[in-house]
Here is the input.
Amino acid sequence: MADKSDKKQHYISHSESRQIAKENSKAIRTFEKAKKRKVRPEEYITEMKDPNNIVEFDDLHTYFFSDAGTVKAVNGVTFSVPAGSTVGVVGESGCGKSVTSLSLMRLVQAPSGQIVSGSIRFRADMFKRDARGRKIPVYETETDENGNEVPKLDSRGKKIVKKNDLGGTMYEMETQVVDIAKMPTDAMRTIRGREISMIFQEPMTSLNPVFTIGNQLDEVGKLHIEGISKERVRARSIEMLKLVGIADPEGVYKKYPHELSGGMRQRVMIAIALLCNPKLIVADEPTTALDVTIQAQILDLLREIKGKINGSIMLITHDLGVVAEMADYVVVMYAGKVIEMGTAEDIFDRPLHPYTIGLQKSKPTVEEESDELYCIPGFVPNPINMPNYCYFRDRCDKCMEKCSGEYPGYVQVTPTHKVACYLYGDGAGEPAKEEKANG
Here is the structure.
């Protein structure tokens, strides 16, 4: 009987499957239509809650509409990335880290994957527009006989347009806060790659095997730096290869991805991400599949470059050691939600949530002698049918009767430290007594 009931629970009938497909199709059409709409910028211009932040995620929901039902990959994520800082996002596989970053880049795999609700506020340098909606160029000036500043003219009597630091056409800019979740696709292309860039998880699959490294670097420059010459874009590409520590940049520029080692391919990915001097770098597992020596070099490189461009980094990783070394702030995710956040010292020295404590216990240490590593018992809940109570309840060794109620809200333990757990109730920030927690 138990086997039959279990089978029925995971079985979808033909009529249910048709109903799911019908609802998915309707939802996807609505979201895809919204992406392609033509809107005035005023519709997605907004304000930051904290002016010190470069990006703010506010109750973000990103779902995948599958044949088995709706997968709630990101289910109400809220956190911020302060300007000039590194924020580490940690959690086990499938917790929603990468989908959160892809939502920020607006690269969630469509049509099944869609940002359903919430906001992603980003402080961007946007092009000023004239009455016709065209970019306003900045012209070179000179002083005339009367001491007035006048536009400088070329031999044909045309105004000479200034060049920016990257060698492209300079335009008048203004700082605006945009809601990326509400931006149409065309508007997002003016930000992605120029203001926000991403270092993808696996360079061998991210780099195109049929184009040289130089072709792939040059493409980014031509796409995002308007008015740049072929010579200048090539020089910029080689300059970036030098910046990321490649010994023979001219030689690597002519090579194909398969001719490079894993560490060099990862450096090329970083060079592509940094080519346009972005404000925010999203690094999704930048040290995956690299040996320890190369990992250390890549992390040192990211830290050094962050200082040079005065930017921010959103670092996504499983490796708590990498986060401890790199991050100023840490966000811990579980089953599509943020369960704890704080400074690196808060999370590593004073972890509160049982899941965060379990993650740290599962990391091997030199001092501890043990035959086997600690493993958090149980399984992550089904993302298609999430429970109403705390998602970690069935795996938690400190759960109480209260944990069977509605999902816990955040408790502000210190000005920098938040946790979503009933062990820290009434806003006092004091953990439950040890006897009660273990009882």
